[in-house]
Write a structure and sequence with these properties.
The protein is of the alpha+beta class. Helices cover 20% and strands 41% of the residues.
Amino acid sequence: MKTYEDVHVFIMDNFGYRRISMYDVLYLKAASNYCDIYLADKSRITVSVPMCEVAEYFPAALFIRIHRSFIVNLGYISRYAGNMVRMIDGRDINIGREYQSVVKSKFVLIGLRKRIREGKQM
């Protein structure tokens, strides 16, 4: 059973701390010593904490780093094409070279003829 802390975080905005469900976070974007948090309601919160520190509070089962400047919610990826993902809000985000194999392993890819042929030979 998930606890309250497992599902929500409180993030400082202009009016104090705003309660955010982790399921509503589309992606995190690094901006020097700041982190932009993009939400499903199309709003954005900027916090004066580096992305690597913010990421510690988000579960690895739900979020994956795809670039040195981006951590995305796997549930909001609408398209995967080799070196980029398209988020449900329409934003295309490039996948860094060092992250491509890890990102690819997170998806079940159906329709790769090469894999089908390899499977038949085994």
